[in-house]
Amino acid sequence: MEQLWYKRSSPVTEVILAEKKYTLEMVGEMLREAATLLIVFTPLYELFEPHPPRWGIVLAILVLGIAAFVVGIDVERRRA
Question: Do the Cβ atoms of 73 and 30 come closer than 8 Å?
Answer without folding.
Answer: no
